[in-house]
Amino acid sequence: MTEAGFAGLHSELKIRTLSLAAPRISFEFFPPRTTEQRLILESTWQKLAPLKPDYLSVTFGAGGTTLEATREAVEALTAETDVPVAPHISCMAHSEKMLHDILVSYRDMGVRKLVVLRGDRPEGQQGPGPFQYANELVSYIRREFGEHFHIEVACYPEFHPESETASTEMFYFKQKVDAGANGAVTQYFYNADSYFSFVDDCIRRGIDIPITPGIMPITNYKQLSRFSGMCGAEIPQWLRRRLETYGDDGASIRAFGLDFVTSLCERLLAGGAPGLHIYTLNRANASFMLWQRLNS
Fold this sequence. Notes:
The protein has 296 residues and is α/β, with parallel strands linked by helices. It has helices at 3-17, 35-48, 67-80, 96-109, 134-145, 166-179, 192-204, 221-231, 237-245, 250-270, 285-294; strands at 25-29, 56-58, 85-90, 113-117, 150-155, 183-188, 211-215, 276-279. It has eleven helices and eight strands. The chain has an eight-stranded parallel β-barrel with strand order 1-2-3-4-5-6-7-8, surrounded by four helices. The chain is globular, with a radius of gyration of 19 Å. It starts with a helix and ends with a helix.
């Protein structure tokens, strides 16, 4: 979408979405590793949980490095909020017993939803445990726990960095769906057409689970550019150049970012997206203001 198209679309969709029901929203956090991070996360979820999101998810660090921190964060959120909590589960568990024990502990906490991923690992290397791909992990959870857990998996409208073609991307995604996934959350993106095109491709392949767009608020351009380079998310050229014009003017970046991401979300919801999954980076303000805009 061009910048001119973005400006015109914002006012058009604002009118159209005012009549829609409040959108389904979920928020994602990463587990804290220090006392300061723990206090920041606590402040964040205390501000966002009252918005009554569908669920709060907690990530599982690269290489499984935050396993205990993830469990502790899930336990705290489950005990202190009435919002469902969805831990990330990845292939980084070192043994089947370790994975089984984790899942039993979550079941005993009352967890009913999981986000199941392959997990980050050094390129070209296998993971440490018995499962190498997310579809294998989904199959195992279904075999051992039946339908107890609602399972969300990941998908990539702009392609996973390791996918060779669109066909291979779709093939691996369908494997996860066929293994028993109930829904999917996308990597973040800034081009709504990529989402709609991906959903159309899924329908043609017989994939009919809800596909929820992942949304990354724009608050820090340098950080966003670094993240996007790592995960393969595209920042459209016009958007990149516009953000670059603000330099170190953080207030202007945040103001423009809120306008743009609000417009993106409005278009996605008006086009039939089942909800929005917001990557908070453990900060409440941008996510809270986006929620306010979408519910005004």
